[in-house]
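EI: anyone free to look at a 568-residue chain?
SC: sure, send it
EI:
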Amino acid sequence: MNDKPKKALSPSPAPPPAAEEYGIETLAIHAGASPEPVTGARNTPIYQTTSYVFEDVEHAADLFNLQTFGFIYSRLTNPTVSVLEERLASLENGRACVCAASGHAAQFLAFFTLFEPGDEFIASKNLYGGSITQFGLSFKRLGWTCHFVDPFDPENFRLALTPKTKAIFIEVLANPGGVVLDLEAIAVVAQDAGIPVNVANRLSLCTFIMPAVIDRSPILVAVSSGGEAPILSRVLRARLETFVPAGLGRLARFAGAIRDRVQDAVPAGTGRRRFWEDFIDGPIAEYILAGQEDAARNLLDETLNEAVEDRKSGQLSNPEGEVYLVGSGPGDPDLLTFRALRLMQRADVVLHDRLVPASILDLVCRDAKRVFVGKKPGDQALRQEQISRLMIDLARQGKRVLRLKSGDPFVFGRGGEEIEALSFEGIPFQVVPGITAANGCASYAGIPLTHRDHAQSCMFVTGHMKDERLDLNWQAMVQPRQTLVVYMGLRSLPEFTEKLIAHGADPTTPAAIIDKGTRDQQQVITGALDRLAVLAAEAKLGGPATIIIGTVVTLRDKLSWFKPRNSG
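SC: here you go
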């Protein structure tokens, strides 16, 4: 018979219920366990077996290599103990738990990680008798010296300190007397002595905290709230776990092993940085993550051999440059697309406008050079022709140029002009659209741009004046059942509203100005069309501002949802 045994010959430990979903009472009963698979029993059975069946050699190897869940033999763990460990970890908001057969064993495990021969520690006299024997006699054989003190006076701990003191040990509640000690005062003694202190749920007494750790050794990611929100840290760690491949440690070790070869083959600078970026995002990394290291080594050998030959022949040249035309949206960093974020991290140079906020610029690659090319009222850093020339020149130098624009580059962003220049010069480019100011600001203000009862069309116009004149199709803008969205119209608002009314718009038409839309400083002003310019002046709006005109504005009172933290 060649049939393999069924997959689950022994129950595997179940993950604990998430603490953010269940209360402590539920966790104390259910965490770490699932119903017994054969009988459906809710309580965890006591498994007295010492050994377990493996499906095959591969299954056994995966278990011993900790690449799959399961049980090997009871000296390591068994199903009953595993449930206890998972449950305690859930109740204490810990990452993991190790249960020992006795208090003596637990104390030994804790101290063994802290002490070296010759180290000393201080302990309360009010301890379980067995602990006093272990500390005073057994630990001496390991070169650890314990000094016992009366714990009711915290100053006794201070008097017993020596330069070799590594820890202070007390019991809460103390066995067998059940006494409660002055934790705060004892913690202060430890802090003053430079001894790390962590007291559960007493942040003020802690000199260190335990972050939630994602372990892909040698890659470690720690998530910490500084002790303010440990549950939040744990939830974030759980979410990040889904984005961090299990094989990332293998990839890091592989990269470390080839660093010298890469330094010899690839010149320092942009070329080497590109190599490592392509290595991480390319087929070599995919092979490693899939466990196909032989294929990865073969491809790596080919790549580095080509680089060495190019270096010997003197055929080295700058890598090909490229331009990324990226829309950053109306201001809220959460509205960036995944693709925008990815390209922002790959850029060598960033050309950005005034309206791109610092919170978005902070997400750009730290090593990228930042160049301001935007416009301020009455001032322009560079003319459009100069911006286009700068992009072309940088790309020809082998740079990856990020042209970062507010909103969407193709909606009053002159993106078409810029890629037209790039195309003419044969420069490779990508365009990443962004959420437009109209869509983003309207949504955050609770104003739909279209609605069956109010508007069946929407028109976008610019209020930017050319030669101090507004040259617009006024008749087209005063059509019924239409929403009008005005970009860059704050400065020209008095003239704009006057001309709109002169061409037939109802002076009482509802209108809104959304200043710094989607940001924490968002401010929304509403009123009749003929009063809008006055209201804007009174509010001293600074922009950027988006203006919406039409009866859809009346829906704001019912649909407004965004509550900016810093609004006036």
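EI: The first strand starts at residue 120 and ends at 124.
SC: 👍
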